[in-house]
Amino acid sequence: MNPRLSLMLAVSSLVLATPALAAEEEGLTPEKVAAIQRDEAAAQAKVNADFGNRKPSEMSNAERGQSIRDQQKESAKVMEKHGVSAKDYATFTARMTPEDNQRVANEAKRLDDKAKADKEAEAKKRKGDGEVHIQQGFSDADPVELESEEGAEPVVDVDSSLETAPTAPSAPVVEIGEAAGTPTKSGGRKSSKSSRRGK
Fold first, then answer.
1. Does residue 105 belong to any structural domain of this protein?
2. Which is nearest to 67 in space by CA: 47, 52, 49, 53?
3. In this structure, are residues 97 and 22 in contact, taking their beta carbons and an 8 Å threshold?
4. Is the pTM of this model over 0.70?
5. Measured CA distances, 131 to 119, 138, 142, 143 (Å)
6. Which burial class, exposed, middle or buried, applies to 32 when counting CB atoms under 10 A from its CB (0-12, 13-18, 19+)?
7. Dihedral of the alpha carbons of 159, 164, 170, 171, in degrees to the nearest 10
8. Which domain holds residue 50?
């Protein structure tokens, strides 16, 4: 191989690799690309929802133009949030290797799993621990608390009419047994024959 040719190949490989290395030094990595893509997708979904998730062919020219402008604004906000210029981002993504693309895919999966776990944890936190605690009755020793504030002492309200009544409070009288006309063990009422035999 010609020494001049090998020198030109070495220099050209350094020149071509420099923008990618410079972009990584600026903070662009495949992992950051995955985060930017995720934020961009969320922003685009928001804009699409604002326009009723309609296809461009279903929109008027004015709506379509406004939709495009809104998408560009949201994309610029995402780039600004991550501190990357659109030009550097486009250059970096265009020069990514298959290994870089795999890193982006792995990071995107990790971010999705993390978001899903956070969502489930938030739902579980709002829902409680999922167990229903059952208390068998209540007493003065173990009162039931209907409303409480964190860190506050429990307050027990006692009905004053219960304290003054010497016996149980007046309640409607309920007849139990045959006098109330309830069925007997055989399932029917007593027959009139058995009452006649007694006479």
1. yes
2. 47
3. no
4. no
5. 19, 20, 20, 20
6. buried
7. 20
8. 30-126
SS3 state of residue 16: helix
Residue 9 lies in a domain: no
Number of domains in the chain: 1
Residue 179 included in any domain: no
Closest alpha carbon to 76 in 108, 43, 49, 54: 43
Q: What is the pLDDT of residues 86-125, one digit of tens each?
A: 999 999 999 999 999 999 999 999 999 999 999 988 887 7
Residue 51 token pair: 């326009």
Question: CA distances (Å), 110 to each of 39, 123, 192, in order?
Answer: 14, 20, 82
163 domain residue, yes or no: no
Average pLDDT over residues 38-67: 92
> Which amino acid does the sequence have at 108?
A
**Where does residue 34 rank: exposed (0-12), middle (13-18), buried (19+ CB within 10 A)?**
buried
